[in-house]
Amino acid sequence: MPTINHHSDRQLLLQISEGDEQAFATLVKMYSGLLFTYLFKLTKDRDIASDVVQEIFTQLWLTRESLKGVESFRSWLFVISRHHAVRMLKNIDRENRIRQEWHQLTQTNSINDEARDQASLKEAYDALVNKAIDQLPPQQKKVWILARMKGKKYAEIAGEMNISRETVKKYLQIASSSIVDHIKSQGLPIIIAFLIMEL
Question: pTM score, two decimals?
């Protein structure tokens, strides 16, 4: 592994800001392992840690012109990565809370009008989601079901389907987007579409 020091960071950042892909590859090699270890300790989730690492370096490349103004790259990198990971964890917590509230809302056994309306809404929602899932291409459909309905991790799905983890992630993103678009096109509340999305 290359030695990490302030001088080499500054030189690499200048080269990267000018579009040097080799310099960027070197920077990724220098920091991706350290960053993953840090984020895994923070999130306790390998998928989240891996996703944050990938997203951070993608954003670094997309905004590379601004890197020449960064003084202490290592400190800066770990600070923005921590903020990104914390925001992602909060989004996941919020998503889980909404799912729990939705479950409680639709599982009531009350026979009053409100309960019947809620049951009807859930029935319509389930039918709409199932229709959207059925319209997905076979591979995307299988990935979505394994991830969303069976709760499997990316690595498990990749092994089961004999595809790469990145392909699993790509299929899931495309499938989720397609399902949300279908739900929104039918005029259901945006919060229902949100339940489908991966954050």
Answer: 0.46
